């Protein structure tokens, strides 16, 4: 076997003999949810007691944990320097998770330790994101153990606030530009396009949450006495929304649509099959823009979703016209869209259609849409390495359908980004019964070990 092959074997052997499992299980047992203030100390513990010492021991990384500039979860920054003439790779991960939701998990499994059932490893963070960054760091460990050096410089950034919108990460990156500069970001998050097909994506859709509300009057009024005499905010709101997006989910406001999809993006998406696994919902082929393929709708187009609506008292309705109606909405948007124009466009559109009584407000800050170009040389290097490892071309997504803080790396730090997911769409991340698939983790070890080996030898 070549040294590359023995490095890959070293990584997969550690998976087969339980070493990888033990590392990940130890990390899952740290209840590092950023969505519960009572677990704030666990965020710090994950970095100081687990990740930092392990990076130092396995990779000789010099590290420190710094406070978040916006008083959110702490951030680990580290470096291994091998030579000024070598490329520098930045590895990112997030050590925080969503809430455990322990009371909602299936009987016999719990969020804060790994439970194995067949190929599924259940536990909070197994898919998002502890299992993913653990895969990358264990692959680096295998390369270093086999070759005695990486062959490139390594920089590490691990935050603990991604599940809260990466609050403070942009400010941290701005203040630490010199320490985070690299030739490329290589990171892992999100799902593969199919469980069995290695995937890489080059950016992500952004998102903007906003609220629509009508406050017509104080309190509710008897529908028999007042029906036909006073306006119904719920009726008005659902009709107002129907002018923004139609009954099959198509955008009706030009100001919410992205630029036309390029031929290069269409070509990249043409051979993909989106498959979330056996427990994923069935794709509705007649949902979304009629003139786009399902792949184009989720990876290359904008969507408007209603996340929640409330009027009256849903749990105990009475015969009364409600005084108000409220909806939480979200726009997912691709690179090239001007998100700052979305809410003004909605206000103008609603006013034009007779719904000026609808109040439109942002719900929180937007997460930016980003995309590294398909012809970026680093993309080609990753594709070539994956083909060398598996014999097959990976799926290439111009953008992930979801949102990640990729603008930190593309816009603030100014580097190309290549994301390699080690999960699948049916993993139930952010929900009870989150799990990783063991075959994906093991193949991810092979892919990343081969990739880091190739980068180190200049391939």
Question: In words, what does this structure look like?
Answer:
With 459 residues, this protein is an alpha+beta fold. It folds into two domains: 3-204 and 369-456, 3-Layer(aba) Sandwich (Aminopeptidase); 206-258 and 302-362, Alpha-Beta Plaits (2-Layer Sandwich). It is built from 14 helices and 19 strands. It has helices at residues 3-16, 19-28, 40-59, 130-147, 169-175, 177-180, 223-226, 233-242, 263-269, 294-299, 342-352, 377-390, 407-412, 438-456, and strands at residues 62-66, 75-80, 88-94, 115-117, 120-122, 153-159, 184-187, 199-201, 203-204, 206-215, 221-222, 303-311, 320-321, 324-333, 359-362, 370-371, 395-397, 417-419, 435-437. Strands 1-2-6-3-7-18 form a six-stranded mixed sheet, with helices on one face. A four-stranded antiparallel sheet has the order 12-14-10-15, covered by helices on one side. A three-stranded antiparallel sheet has the order 4-5-19. β1 (62-66) and β2 (75-80) form a beta hairpin. α1 packs across α4 and α12 (377-390) packs across α14. The longest helix is centred in the N-terminal third of the chain and has 20 residues, at 40-59. The chain is globular, with a radius of gyration of 24 Å.
């Amino acid at each position: 076997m070549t040294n590359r092959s023995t490095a890959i074997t070293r990584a997969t052997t550690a998976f087969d003999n339980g070493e990888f499992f033990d590392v990940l299980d130890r990390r899952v047992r740290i209840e590092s949810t950023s969505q519960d203030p009572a677990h704030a100390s666990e965020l710090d513990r994950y970095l100081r007691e687990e990740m930092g010492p392990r990076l130092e021991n396995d990779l000789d990384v010099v590290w420190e944990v710094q406070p978040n500039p916006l008083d959110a979860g702490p951030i680990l920054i580290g470096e291994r320097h091998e030579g000024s003439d070598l490329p520098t790779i930045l590895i990112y991960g997030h050590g925080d998770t969503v809430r455990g939701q322990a009371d909602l998990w299936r009987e016999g499994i719990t969020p804060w330790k790994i439970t194995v059932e067949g190929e599924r490893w259940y536990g909070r963070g197994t898919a998002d994101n502890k299992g993913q960054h653990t895969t990358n760091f264990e692959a680096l460990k295998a390369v270093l153990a086999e070759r005695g050096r990486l062959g490139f410089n390594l920089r590490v950034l691990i935050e603990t606030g991604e599940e809260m919108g990466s609050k403070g990460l942009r400010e941290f990156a701005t203040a630490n530009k010199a320490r985070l500069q690299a030739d490329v970001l290589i990171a892992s998050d999100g799902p593969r396009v199919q469980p069995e097909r290695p995937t890489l994506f080059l950016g992500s859709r952004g998102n903007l949450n906003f609220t629509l509300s009508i406050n017509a009057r104080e309190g509710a009024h008897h529908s028999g006495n007042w029906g036909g005499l006073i306006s119904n905010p719920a009726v008005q709101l659902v009709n107002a929304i129907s002018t923004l997006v139609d009954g099959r989910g198509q955008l009706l406001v030009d100001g919410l649509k992205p630029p036309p999809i390029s031929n290069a993006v269409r070509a990249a998406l043409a051979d993909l099959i989106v498959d979330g696994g056996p427990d994923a919902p069935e794709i509705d082929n007649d949902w979304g823009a009629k003139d786009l393929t399902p792949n184009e709708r989720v990876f290359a187009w904008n969507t408007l979703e209603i996340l929640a609506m409330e009027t009256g008292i849903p749990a105990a309705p009475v015969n009364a016209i409600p005084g108000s109606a409220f909806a939480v909405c979200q726009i997912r948007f691709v690179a090239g869209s001007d998100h700052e124009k979305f809410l003004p466009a909605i206000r103008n559109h609603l006013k034009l259609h007779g719904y000026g009584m609808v109040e439109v407000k942002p719900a929180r800050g937007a997460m930016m849409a980003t995309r590294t170009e398909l012809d970026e040389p680093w993309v080609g290097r990753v594709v070539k390495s994956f083909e060398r490892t598996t014999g097959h071309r990976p799926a290439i997504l111009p953008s992930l359908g979801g949102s990640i803080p990729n603008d930190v790396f593309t816009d603030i730090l100014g580097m190309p980004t290549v994301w390699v997911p080690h999960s699948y769409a049916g993993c139930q991340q952010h929900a009870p019964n989150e799990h990783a698939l063991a075959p994906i983790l093991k193949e991810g070890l092979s892919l990343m070990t081969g990739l880091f080996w190739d980068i180190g030898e200049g391939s």
